[in-house]
Amino acid sequence: MTTKSITTTCCVAGGGPAGMMLGFLLARAGVEVVVLEKHADFLRDFRGDTIHPSTLELMREVGLLDEFLKLPHSQVAQLSGQVGDTTIHLADFSHLPTHCKFIALMPQWDFLDFLALHGRKYPAFDLHMRTEATDLIEEGGCVVGVKAKSPDGDIEIRADLVVGCDGRHSTVRDRAGFAVEDIGAPIDVLWFRISRHEDDTAETFGHMEAGMMLVMLNRNDYWQCAYVIPKGGIDRVKAKGFPAFLDSIAFMSPFLRDRLGEIKGWDDVKLLTVAVDRLARWHRPGLLCIGDAAHAMSPIGGVGINLAIQDAVAAANILAAPLKERRVTEALLEAVQQRRTMPMRVIQWLQIQIQNRVLSPVLGTATRPKPPFAAKLFNWFPVLRRIPARLIGLGVRAEHVHTPEAKTS
Ligand SMILES: Cc1cc2nc3c(=O)[nH]c(=O)nc-3n(C[C@H](O)[C@H](O)[C@H](O)COP(=O)(O)OP(=O)(O)OC[C@H]3O[C@@H](n4cnc5c(N)ncnc54)[C@H](O)[C@@H]3O)c2cc1C
Predict the structure, then answer these.
(1) Which one, of 82, 71, 66, 62, lies nearest residue 20 by Cα?
(2) Sign of the C-alpha dihedral computed for residues 237, 241, 244 and 245 taken in this order
(3) Global model pTM greater than 0.85
(4) pLDDT digits (tens, 9 = 90+) for 299-342
(5) What pLDDT band is residue 238 in, cutting at 50, 70 and 90?
(6) 233 alpha carbon to ligand 1 midpoint, in Å?
(7) Relative to the CA of 47, which ligand 1 atom is closest?
């Protein structure tokens, strides 16, 4: 098969939250952009479903909030969790300085489809599904494009800038030879679904017990369940037997007992490995990484999507005009890294504190856990719930859309 060649201004490898938001914003600003997504659709259910208040604010800034909120979703204004027999009321989003004072729980493919739909309204937007970036094209020490494979054959996409948005197993960062600092995560996740009945609670639910933890995301007609285990502990879970696994789920969420038969065996339970890492340098001439490709996030706190989207907004703000004028320099790529490093470090630091101080002890104990003193403060002083709400809902250094909407003829 012959190799097809495309020339564009920016090539985004990876159509997750970071890549789709960046592609949408650049196209909206009139920058020619090719987005490559290796899968045929956006049904990557591992990503979680949290659309944060900050992202809803961005939707408002680009004039799409009302239409977006018409998509089926549920609104979560408070977050609570259960540690042993104590319920902790952890976050209250109702005081956030945003128009939407809640997290929207929406299947993420609906969100990404929405961005694709609106991206396609701009002539500069070119989304290639089933197209996998396989290598970088380099000339004179500078990245000048991407090699990709698609069902129609190999493609070379030549671009002034390549942005790696291909997630925590990024091919782009691997091919670029970036040094990765592996911070490590002591947990993995067993991922499965169970049907949701109309009279079930609507709440997203987290429950910690001795040696186990279950988080349940409300996806309207089913619960997406994340059963947290110690890293590498899958063999120990399996050694106890499948019935013991089901019993532990029923212990943490008794209302599921009547439908546990839906999980027929280990084939219905997917192991997701959790990574926390970051690049020392996010860029090289002609190349930038953002989102999980630059800093893989743990699921703790459900904040990785927010961070990825915020990276994309910052990158679009800093790079859209220079890309249009074909004057992107490495100093500008460094400016993106500089702007996003502090928020990323703060959030990763918090995730690591929670995984090491809370999750690891709970998963390693045989006695029923009690909430740490600091967690009880959230129950006693409701005003404190605004702090996690801010960190989860807005992150640190919330970004706003400064890119204009280019006129379309
Ligand atoms: C089990 C688990 C649960 C999580 N739950 C939540 C949650 O509830 N809330 C939250 O905020 N965060 C959650 N996270 C973290 C969150 O998933 C990530 O931080 C976030 O998805 C990062 O977005 P991204 O766009 O950078 O990368 P990704 O979401 O990983 O997207 C990368 C995209 O690139 C595509 N791709 C990969 N390689 C290539 C290639 N070579 N060529 C073309 N395309 C490619 C992939 O198919 C994918 O669509 C969770 C993480 C895990 C592990």
Answers:
(1) 62
(2) positive
(3) yes
(4) 888 889 999 999 999 999 999 999 999 999 999 999 999 999 99
(5) very high
(6) 23
(7) 17
Which residue's alpha carbon is nearest to atom 10 within ligand 1?
Answer: 302
Bridge partners (DSSP) listed for residue 96: none
Per-residue b or e along 40-74, where b marks 16 or more CB atoms closer than 10 Å to that residue's CB: eebebbebbbbbbbbbbbbbbbbebbeebbeeebb
Which residues have C-beta atoms less than 6 Å from ligand 1?
A: 13-19, 36-39, 44, 46-48, 50, 132-133, 165-168, 171, 189, 226, 272, 274, 291-293, 297, 299, 302-306, 308
Alpha carbon distances (Å) from 32 to 6, 142, 172, 252, 324: 11, 20, 20, 50, 8
Distance CA 246, CA 312 (A): 40
- Of the residues 305, 348, 359, which should be mutated to test ligand 1's pocket, given the most ligand atoms within 8 Å of the CB? 305
pLDDT digits (tens, 9 = 90+) for 22-49: 999 999 999 999 999 999 887 766 667 7
Separation between Cα atoms, residue 393 and residue 93, nearest integer Å: 7
Which two tokens mark 395? 């992150």
